Amino acid sequence: MENTVVVGAQFGDEGKAKITDLLAENADVIIRYQGGSNAGHTVVYNNKKYKFHLIPSGILYENKICFLGAGVVIKPDDFKKELDELMTEGIPEERFKKALKINPLAHITMPWHTEIDGYSENSLGANKIGTTKKGIGPTYTDKYARIGFRVEDLFNEETLKTKLDVILPQKNKQLEKIYSLKTYTMDEALEICRKYREIFAPYVCFEWQKVLDDAKRNKTILFEGAQGVLLDIDYGTYPYVTSSNPVGGGAAVGASMGPLTIKEVIGVFKAYITRVGEGPFVTELTDETGKKIQDIGAEFGATTGRPRRCGWFDAVIAKYSVLVGGISSVALTKLDVFDTFSEIKLCTAYKNRLTGEVTEYYPTNVYTHKDFEPVYETFKGWMTSTSDIKEFDKLPKEAKIYLKRLEEVMGASIKIVSTGADRTQTMFIK
Ligand code: GDP
Ligand code: IMO
Ligand code: MG
Known about the structure:
Blueprint: E1 4-8, H1 16-24, E2 29-32, E3 41-45, E4 48-52, E5 65-68, E6 73-74, H2 76-88, H3 93-99, E7 100-102, E8 107-108, H4 111-124, H5 136-144, H6 157-178, H7 186-200, H8 208-218, E9 221-224, H9 248-254, E10 264-270, E11 273-275, H10 288-296, E12 309-311, E13 313-314, H11 315-324, E14 329-333, E15 343-352, E16 358-359, E17 372-380, H12 397-410, E18 414-418, E19 426-428
Parallel strand pairs: 1-9, 1-10, 2-5, 2-9, 5-7, 6-8, 10-14, 13-15, 14-18
Antiparallel strand pairs: 3-4, 11-12, 15-16, 15-17, 18-19
Magnesium ion binds near residues 12, 13 and 39.
């Protein structure tokens, strides 16, 4: 395998973790490049379900290096909780100590970030984003405002005090005057940071430049994305987005490797679309069909448990995602969810209800999305189980017709088809 990025190509939860897990077998180093514990990544292996939020799922294998890249934001308590849960699931502590590495440049979600996230959501009322309330937006906000805390800061008491001296008074002013939230004394903040230092100490990799230099020269690297292109801060359905860059280009920055290290960008799409949280969704189905997809696809969030909104595959979004996500090939998941559908629809264009104009290109001003209705093509379903099929040639002819058309409208070829949550329920297309 060549150095590959796995990118979510819709609104997140496309089954990236399953695809990452499959590809990780042939990688030496797995680097998560953005996002934080807002992600919920599920891997099913040997009839056991593992849930990841921050830690790369590559940790399921022995002898891989798993990095939390510089572009990630880490909520220390969530990191600790995830470690404990994975250890309870049977992954040995020794494996984490050997394999798991945190880039010291990664930013930390401080307690006030989570509190501000909660406050902002409540104050937006009907216009809320529907965030995971993991403090993601406020952590990235402070990173870009140059008042964030990085993992490395925790390990130098002098740096920490200098930064707190500057940052804490302004943060407290904000917390008190704008948000009416609890403020922090210097001693409290230092104590919190010392606790965080203890959590990170076994995993922070100060020799990251050496390790990544060796990886770049001698090893196969898998870049693991979180969220999805339509949640990207620049290219997603702004403002209903997350605060990082899940697009393929985000890997070049967040994993400290630069663009030329990347040879392939696999976009993961579901055979339909889901979205959790608020924001526009042109092909959303609020009827029985949407409910059927939700039930069969078990579409409930892995992080927050919220029901995921469901709709038909949207090729306007997909084509856009291939372009801005830098996607070079496609992994299509959850085809099996359509096994009992006699009819499947595919949105190939949007029609503007006001002007009658039809477009195949994604309208980036999401406030206009209410004016668009999907233009559908209808496909005959295959009405038979695909979950045990292991070769593409053995798929029912109706499924192949649907997949062929998806490739045409997306402008990218499908390399992997998934028909079940398990590692084994996968077909590679040559
Ligand atoms: P991620 O965030 O993109 O990694 O995706 P999630 O793990 O949040 O959600 C995808 C869900 O679909 C998980 O429960 C997976 O176990 C499951 N899944 C992945 N691929 C397939 C598939 O091909 N068929 C079915 N039925 N489930 C799948
Ligand atoms: P994975 O990696 C689906 C959504 C939230 C909300 C918006 C902003 O599992 O695909 P945030 O907490 O990031 O500020 O929330 O983004 N969101 C996700 N939706 N999958 C995810 O991750 C998500 N991470 C964030 O629901 O709409
Ligand atoms: Mg998820």
